[in-house]
């Protein structure tokens, strides 16, 4: 990785931190130059404009989120095991110091206005996350792991809502037990739709249980 690439990555890392804590509008070429000890022209050369900088911040955050939550689950079997793995990594991510800086949650109100390229990029991240949950539910139904009446859109809606509540209780309420409560809520919801063939067995892989075990002191 070249010096220019390393510098750009460092700028984006700091920009994500600012966006999550102070809002996207506070991410400016000037603020980044001050915090990183760089010249404004040194920051500007990597992005070209304020709007492009904000867009690249959202894209960089999306890559980090997908690497932490979605990609590890692809090695799990399709259907319910993969769904459990996604949710386990999501819970752990939101419970970590880095994950508490959830840009798509923290900046949602800031971007509720007119459509912009930055807003659409962030909306795309949320939609793709929900779509992954929906896909796992449909696969689980097809594989006989969940009952035929399991509504993929409704379950994805409820599961995503649990992640939003976890972020709220972890960051705002500072509840240490929030992750464990969220895991219990996830299991209770999904077990209610488990087919009789899997109710007596655990669909959660050893990897998933190990991920969640790290949250319990």
From TrEMBL:
Cited Pfam families: TetR_C_13 (PF16925), TetR_N (PF00440)
Gene3D superfamilies the record matches: Homeodomain-like, Tetracycline Repressor, domain 2
Record key words, sorted: DNA-binding, Transcription, Transcription regulation
GO terms of molecular function: DNA binding
DNA-binding region: 28-47
HTH tetR-type domain: residues covered: 5-65
Record-linked PROSITE patterns: HTH_TETR_2 (PS50977)
InterPro entries named in the record: Homeodomain-like_sf, HTH_TetR, Tet_transcr_reg_TetR-rel_C_sf, TetR_C
PANTHER family per record: HTH-TYPE TRANSCRIPTIONAL REPRESSOR NEMR (PTHR47506:SF6), TRANSCRIPTIONAL REGULATORY PROTEIN (PTHR47506)
Name the UniProt record assigns to this protein: TetR/AcrR family transcriptional regulator
Organism: Noviherbaspirillum saxi
């Amino acid at each position: 990785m070249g010096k220019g690439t390393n510098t750009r990555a460092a700028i984006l890392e700091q920009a994500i931190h600012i966006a999550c804590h102070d809002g996207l509008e506070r991410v400016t070429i000037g603020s980044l130059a001050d915090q990183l000890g760089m010249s404004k022209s040194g920051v500007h050369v990597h992005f070209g404009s304020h709007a492009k900088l904000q867009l690249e911040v959202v894209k960089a955050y999306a890559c980090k989120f997908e690497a932490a939550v979605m990609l590890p689950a692809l090695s799990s079997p399709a259907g319910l095991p993969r769904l459990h793995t996604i949710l386990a990594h999501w819970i752990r991510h939101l419970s970590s110091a880095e994950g508490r800086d959830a840009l798509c949650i923290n900046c949602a109100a800031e971007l509720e206005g007119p459509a912009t390229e930055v807003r659409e990029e962030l909306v795309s991240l949320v939609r793709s996350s929900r779509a992954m949950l929906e896909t796992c539910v449909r696969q689980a139904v097809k594989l006989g792991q969940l009952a035929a009446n399991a509504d993929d859109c409704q379950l994805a809606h409820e599961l995503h809502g649990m992640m939003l509540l976890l972020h709220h209780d972890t960051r705002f309420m500072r509840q240490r037990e929030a992750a464990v409560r969220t895991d219990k809520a996830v299991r209770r919801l999904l077990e209610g739709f488990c087919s009789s063939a899997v109710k007596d067995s655990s669909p959660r892989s050893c990897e998933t249980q190990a991920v969640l075990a790290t949250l319990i002191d």
